[in-house]
Design brief:
The chain contains 14 helices and 20 strands. The protein is an alpha/beta fold. It has 3 domains: 106 residues, Tetrapyrrole methylase, N-terminal domain (Cobalt-precorrin-4 Transmethylase, domain 1), CATH 3.40.1010; 115 residues, Methyltransferase, Cobalt-precorrin-4 Transmethylase, Domain 2; 203 residues, Rossmann fold, CATH 3.40.50.150. Helix 13 packs across helix 14. The longest helix has 13 residues.
């Protein structure tokens, strides 16, 4: 056994598979090295469309295997072919390491077992046809299972979720589409997400084929109601100047609230402190229990823009307001459930942060459940406007053997008085913040709690 062979890890095979990028110009667009590799292979794997391009040019003894819908099985096919003494070549559209099979092969077979001969990415070709630079483009793939049309409140398991979230963050997005997730469905998703006239879609279809077709700068509504040839690439771009709302510090009146009791939301001053106490990261998973009009959860969604907020509200009118506020803020990483906690919380993923703004008389249960489900390092924040609720919370924490402290938050706002101004106090409130220790499960010995005031 050679020294090189002995140094292979458990995940790196001692053979190699040739992964070849190819476009729809087929055999004639391949390099000499790619053609030689195909001719020398005993087995060529690829989607049927690409196999048809090369089959007439291969020796008659080369076996072909279509992987349409079977891509995850390709690494095992490679192993079996190697065991049978066959060299293997795999065809991939464009660049195999740009949302292609190359990453899967390297992960399953090891980097030493995979040799990559890339072609131009179809994104590069599409941008060349559309006369667009692409160095600043965010690339997203919507290949995957048919999850149906996008709807408000969709969760991260929807195949269009990465695309809709990318639109919230980037000015230009290029999309690898699929037959079930084509330009029309993408456009409809962005209309539902509230982007209306603020985006334009361009489509490059059947690249490198005689019937290649380009569709420039279509409004979302137009793209949503027409069919496009397959295969295709989509380019999404913002049009005009559109200043997004701030990540933190929306005014109270920016939110639709319950009438005639306007003001039943967590006030800006309290909201800012509660959000700070949640310790959110860009990718945090957040629970908002007792969401009300959604002010805390929706601003949490803006901070955790690569994460997701799962909110629950039992009051039908408040839930409707929260949904409308989410639509207006284009909070596509926000899912609201109309229910009474804790019913339904078991279906949510474990959170990095939990905010409790209302408990419906089940505060102790919600505290216990939240601390049990929080990830290591997670935080629980609770807002209270009454001493009774604060007492219930501290009693529950005391019963768990958890240390706590209370800090009252008082704030006042200026208000005109004749030709002068006076300060008008807001109700004193408390924010209770429990911080779960890193690398440890929830238990009385590893939860530290600090408490500050808020409004529910």
């Amino acid at each position: 056994m050679t020294e090189d062979r002995r140094q292979k890890t458990d995940y790196e095979e001692v053979f190699s598979v040739l992964c070849i990028g190819i476009l729809d110009d087929g055999w004639y667009g391949l390099t000499d090295a790619a053609r030689a590799g195909l001719a020398a292979a005993g087995l060529v794997i690829g989607v049927r469309r690409m196999l048809d391009h090369v089959a007439p040019h291969l020796p008659p003894n080369v076996a072909l295997r279509a992987m349409d819908g079977l891509l995850p099985q390709a690494p095992e096919w490679v192993r079996q072919a190697h065991a049978d003494g066959l060299d293997v070549a795999i065809l991939a559209t464009g660049d195999p390491l740009c949302h292609g099979i190359g990453s899967l092969l390297i992960a399953k077979l090891g980097a030493a077992a995979v040799r990559v001969l890339p072609a131009l990415s179809t994104i590069q070709v599409a941008c060349a046809r559309l006369k667009r630079p692409w160095q600043d483009i965010k690339i997203v793939s919507v290949h995957g299972a048919n999850a149906g049309e996008w709807c408000a409140g969709a969760t991260p398991d929807h195949v269009l979720y990465p695309l809709v979230r990318a639109v919230a963050e980037f000015e230009r997005i290029a999309v690898f589409t699929s037959p079930c997730n084509g330009p029309d469905r993408i456009a409809r998703a962005l209309v539902v997400a509230g982007y209306g006239d603020s985006l334009r879609i361009s489509v490059a279809a059947r690249l490198q084929l005689p019937d290649e077709a380009l569709f420039h700068d279509l409004p979302l509504i137009e793209a949503a109601n027409r069919c496009f040839p397959d295969p295709n690439i989509v380019l999404i771009e913002r049009c005009g100047e559109c200043l997004p709302p701030p990540l933190l510090g929306l005014e109270d009146n920016d939110y639709i609230q319950r009438q005639p009791d306007k003001g039943l939301i967590t006030k800006l001053e309290v909201r800012a402190l509660a959000l700070a106490k949640l310790g959110l990261r860009a990718d945090s998973i957040v629970w908002d229990i007792g969401a009300g009009a959604g002010s805390v959860g929706l601003e949490a969604a803006r901070i955790a823009h690569r994460g997701h907020v799962f909110a629950m509200e039992k009051n039908t009118a408040d839930a409707a307001n929260a949904r409308e506020n989410a639509r207006r803020l284009r909070a596509t990483n926000y899912t609201l459930v109309e229910s009474r906690a804790p019913a339904g919380l078991d279906a949510w993923p474990d959170p990095d942060a939990v905010f409790i703004g209302g408990s419906d008389g089940k505060l102790a249960d919600l505290i216990n459940l939240s601390l049990a489900r929080l990830k290591p390092g997670g935080r629980l924040v609770m807002n209270f406007a009454t001493l009774e609720n604060l007492a219930d919370a501290t009693a529950a924490l005391e019963k768990m053997g958890v240390a706590w402290e209370v800090t009252q938050l008082s704030a006042a706002r200026s208000q005109p008085l004749l030709d002068m101004h006076r300060l008008v106090a807001l109700n004193p409130v408390w924010i209770v913040a429990a911080h779960l220790c890193d690398h440890a499960p929830a238990s009385p010995g590893n939860v530290a709690v600090s408490v500050l005031p808020t409004e529910s």
